[in-house]
Write a structure and sequence with these properties.
This protein has one domain (2-119). The strands form two sheets. A four-stranded antiparallel β-sheet has the order 1-2-3-7, with no helix packed on it. Strands 4, 5, 6 and 8 form a four-stranded antiparallel β-sheet that branches. The relative contact order is 0.27. It has 120 residues and is an alpha+beta fold. It has one helix spanning 2-22, and strands at 28-29, 37-41, 45-50, 56-69, 76-84, 89-90, 94-98, 107-119.
Length: 120
């Protein structure tokens, strides 16, 4: 079992290394955010803040690629997955999500980040 986990980790490392060269690695402002929201995507995480408007809530979506926990420990998979900032974040407040929170030993990079606004 340890040998197969070691092999999976090596495959994931090689896959992520290849993705790292293909992905935009520098932090910056994401283009898919509503106009009154600021989204800063880093290599492994993203932070969003939407302007206070007195009633809207939002969710930060982060797309990740790499090694992640696919079930109860020690089940892992390599591929893409999403991280959401649930529960809703009220407008005017900041929220952060990261690709590293999906199980112990996770190795993944952020590929996209955007905000979904809910008016209420």
């Amino acid at each position: 079992m340890n040998k197969s986990l070691s092999i999976a980790a090596r495959v994931a490392t090689v896959a992520i290394s290849g993705l790292g060269f293909a992905a935009v690695m520098g932090p910056g402002t994401a283009q898919a955010a509503p106009q009154d929201c600021q989204v800063q995507k880093g290599l492994f995480d993203a932070t969003a803040t939407c302007a206070a408007d007195g009633g809207s809530n939002y969710v930060l979506h982060l797309d990740c690629v790499g090694l992640y926990a696919s079930g109860p420990f020690p089940l892992y998979a390599v591929g893409s997955y999403k991280v959401l900032s649930y529960p809703f974040t009220p407008s005017g407040a900041s929220t952060t999500v990261a690709c590293t929170g999906m199980g112990p030993g996770v190795l993944a990079v952020a590929t996209n980040a955007f905000v979904e606004v809910y008016n209420g």
